[in-house]
Amino acid sequence: MNLAYVFPGQGSQSIRMMTDFAASFPEIKQTFEQGSDILQQDLWKIVATGPEEDLNRTENTQPIMLCASTATWKVWQKHCTATPIKMAGHSFGEYSALVCSEALDFETALPLARYRGQVMQQAVPEGQGAMAAILGLEDQALAEVCEQAAQGQVVQAVNFNAPGQIVIAGNAEAVARAVEAAKSAGAKRAITLPLSVPSHSALMQPAAEQLSDYLDNITMQSPKVDVIQNVDVKAYFEISDIKDALCRQLFNPVRWVETIQQIVSDGANALIELGPGKVLTGLTKRIDRKLPCYGVHDAKSMEQALGNLENFTNEVVQ
After folding, report:
1. What's 221's DSSP letter?
2. What's the average model confidence in pLDDT over 99-128?
3. 37, 83, 139, 178: most buried by Cβ count inside 10 Å?
4. For 221-250, b where at least 16 C-beta lie within 10 A, e where not — what string?
5. Helix or strand run (H / E) with residue 247
6. SS3 of 78, please?
7. Is 25 helix (H, G, I), strand (E, B) or coil?
8. Is-contact 86 228, C-beta < 8 A?
9. Whether residue 125 has pLDDT greater than 50
10. Which residues are known catalytic residues?
């Protein structure tokens, strides 16, 4: 069996996520406590009690998602010793993948995650950027919608999440125009998302420049497992290439459909999502229905995933 592990990004967070998991496995709280000590902020308190505005603040969400996925990885490793052949993370989840592949130390990655969130929010003042999900429109049709709606501003496809499910981002006014135009063009749904940072759009270029300066001053190692990067669907081992891909990722689309297709092409026959929510599990089923995908986000889902893998292995052997 060839496993691949994927890690969720911003948007999968919720109040009280991981609390049931923490009740069964001490590694969850221990990881959050370690993260809280590093950042001098009680991250677990934000998760456990909110308020939601604090959890959803980009500079908090990204370190918290890193803690959540890293903690899940630690627990999973104790119950499944299979070495994955590939890893990937959706948007910010790429940083979790790099930590779990040992390219980035957890102690280094947490301040990096906070800094990334801060420069992203600073690049576009709150209320001036927006993101929206467009369902049921082909890539080319949506590209034309965005081109017509821009009117001198920025609006572009930034997350190719699954066939017929694309997220756009840019200036708030342009995104609003694109939402209405997408509906007129035949989109099944066009929904503005509760996010003010237009991630992966050209408006993130100033943030990428600041991130580049920060990355120049941190130590990384070659990953022990291939990490397929969002920006160009490639796995890098040269540190300079990884850092460059992380910077480019900030203002370029997340090519998630191609990422899953590449994972399958590279020989993976089962996928495990490690971290809160089931977003990537759902997307994977839309991208490749034949690829078994199991989400791990609490004790029950982990038990189910382990059982499913055992059954799958037995079927393959037979």
Report:
1. -
2. 96
3. 178
4. eebebbbbbbbebebbeebeebbbbbbebb
5. helix 239-249
6. helix
7. coil
8. yes
9. yes
10. 91, 200
- Sheet with 129-135, strands from edge to edge, namely 155-162, 165-171, 129-135, 189-192
Residues 279 and 11: their CA atoms lie apart, in Å, by: 9
Write out the two tokens for 93: 């989840």
Nearby residues of 43 by Cβ (< 8 Å), 6 or more positions away? 32, 35, 36, 60, 63, 64, 67
Tokens of 62: 């990204």
Residue 270 has pLDDT above 90, yes or no: yes
Q: Which stretches of 41-128 are assigned E, i.e. beta strand?
A: 86-89
Q: Write out the two tokens for 100.
A: 């779990």
Contact 173, 179 (CB under 8 A): no
Pick the range with the lowest mean pLDDT from 67-76, 154-163, 174-183, 195-204: 195-204
Residue 217's CB is within 10 A of a number of other CB atoms, namely 6
Structure tokens at 204: 């993130």
Token code pair at residue 13: 């967070």
Distance CA 233, CA 286 (A): 19
8-state DSSP, 254: B
**If you search the block for the tokens 């037979």, which residue do you land on?**
318
Q: Give CA separation, 136 vs 55, 84, 88, 185, in Å.
A: 30, 33, 25, 10
pLDDT digits (tens, 9 = 90+) for 210-241: 999 999 999 999 999 999 999 999 999 999 99
**Residue-wise pLDDT tens digits, 179-189:** 999 999 999 99
Global confidence as pTM: 0.95
Q: Which two tokens stand for residue 9?
A: 């990004």
